[in-house]
Amino acid sequence: MKFKNFLLDTAKGAAIGVAMIIPGVSGGTLAVLMNVYDKLIGAISNILKDFKNSVKTLLPIMLGAVLAVAAAYFPLKYALRHAPFPTVMLFAGLMLGSCPKMVKDGIKNGFKALDVISILLPLALVIGVCFIPNLGSADLSAEMPVYGYFLLILIGAVASCALVVPGVSGSMLLLIFGYYNEILETVSLLKDDFGHAILVLLIFAVGIVVGFFSIAKLMKYLLGKFPRATNWAIIGFVVGSIPAIFITYNNNFPEFEYTVLSAAHIAVGCVLCVLGLIGAYALTAFVEGKNRKLPDAAISETATEENNTPEAE
Predict the structure, then answer these.
(1) Which residue, among 16, 31, 11, 59, has the nearest Cα to 308 in the 3D structure?
(2) What tens digit of pLDDT does each residue of 204-238 get?
(3) H helix intervals, 1-145
(4) Burial 38-65 (b: 16+ CB within 10 A, else e)
(5) Which of 1, 125, 142, 242 is in the most buried spot, having the most CB atoms within 10 Å?
(6) Which stretch of DSSP H or E encloses residue 183?
(7) How far apart are CA 157 and CA 187, in angstroms?
(8) Where are the domains of the chain?
(9) Per residue in 188-206, pLDDT tens?
(10) Looking at residue 143, what DSSP letter applies?
């Protein structure tokens, strides 16, 4: 992989990493938006068949995601604490701006009456999970029962599923199940109780890895066998995630100190929403136009250089 492509994929991974820690925003959606979703799924699916090339593909994306999570957590927490409405409006704008290209690509693959179900079911699911009563605060302390460690693997797998399926927010699911704050607090406890904190985080990471690879293979299968229905289902997830952002923050985010909505907050929020929409739309249009100008051979060569990952058998 060329160094320029490595840096580009690292930057894309950073954007995905930021999305991973924002409840209501999907890392998978950002991957689709930046045209790395297929490459990511392909590398994960083929990691046992072609470990070296798959790792070369995944390394810059994962590196960018890890660095972004570490760098963006505190600024985002500050923004959500002191200006939640403008921040959420920016997120909504970014997702709105990504929708036109996704719908356009979906239409290219065809549309049938039954595809309405493919759209409505995931849309209803994304919004519906926001109304599940909070399952309570998870116990990740040193006194938690043994079954809590096994449950943590399951929770990690659930969170990773949301990273692979565009439109589903892993952080939002963690929040609903009562693990979002507890995981973040565990990170903070690394300096005070390193042994237990690192054990909890490692077990959680095992669940993420297991779920990540399992669901990636499932998504590759669905996109291969049922591409049209799967694409429209992804669109349903993305569209449903837009109102889900507001529902999640309004109903399930008491830990942030919401300020009273002022005219200034509303105005700034509307401006940021428009800027996010324009920015996301411009980015997708730029990428689409650039790919359209490339001859088929150049596109194939570029894909080979970037992916360097064989097709699944």
Answers:
(1) 59
(2) 889 888 888 888 788 778 888 888 888 888 888 87
(3) 3-20, 27-33, 37-45, 51-82, 84-108, 115-128
(4) bbbbbbbbbbeeeeebbebbbbbbbbbb
(5) 242
(6) helix 180-188
(7) 19
(8) 3-307
(9) 777 777 888 888 889 988 9
(10) T
